[in-house]
Give the backbone structure.
Amino acid sequence: EAGVTQFPSHSVIEKGQTVTLRCDPISGHDNLYWYRRVMGKEIKFLLHFVKESKQDESGMPNNRFLAERTGGTYSTLKVQPAELEDSGVYFCASSPEVSGHTDTQYFGPGTRLTVL
Amino acid sequence: AQSVSQHNHHVILSEAASLELGCNYSYGGTVNLFWYVQYPGQHLQLLLKYFSGDPLVKGIKGFEAEFIKSKFSFNLRKPSVQWSDTAEYFCASAPGYSSASKIIFGSGTRLSIRP
């Protein structure tokens, strides 16, 4: 079974440019999450999709960040315009829809974003 | 609000030493707890998790963790570490009332094992 994949693995852009990150969850997983780790700090939640709907976007830092999950499959996270403080590693995770207790989230390798 | 704190930023041990990484969480309700590990160049992966029942949880690669509710702690232990345990370890929590919710991570502990 293929794991969570993310593209690109690295991105270096200049301040003011736009970048789009992509996440392909494990096939059949309804839940898709985005997290971010700024250097040296904790991994922080950004948002959660259930299928194509945003379930929780309380962690999105500001309106320069736009996440989509058309069709409930892969997701994109666009940063426009990028600022220096957006640099970090962006992780995607997915989990199946299982009732009862919090299910395991499976993480992708992350996209390292550097804004110069 | 939920939070997770890890006591050690960087731990250095020799092979065969015993390991204990501290973790405390802050949440008033039912909580699910996790330890994730990220080996160099690899994905974050689940080491072990606690949902309910026996507070002593066994994970992969000989790791275990003990949930102590009165202390709000979930420390990770291994009796004898190996060089291959060099990695970054993250303690995390999530509310227990939902099957799918955001995970709150601690800041991570980098473990270096001297061969």
Observations:
- The longest strand of chain B covers residues 87-95.
- Chain B touches chain A at residues 4, 32, 36, 42-46, 49, 51-52, 90, 94-96, 98-108 (CB under 8 Å).
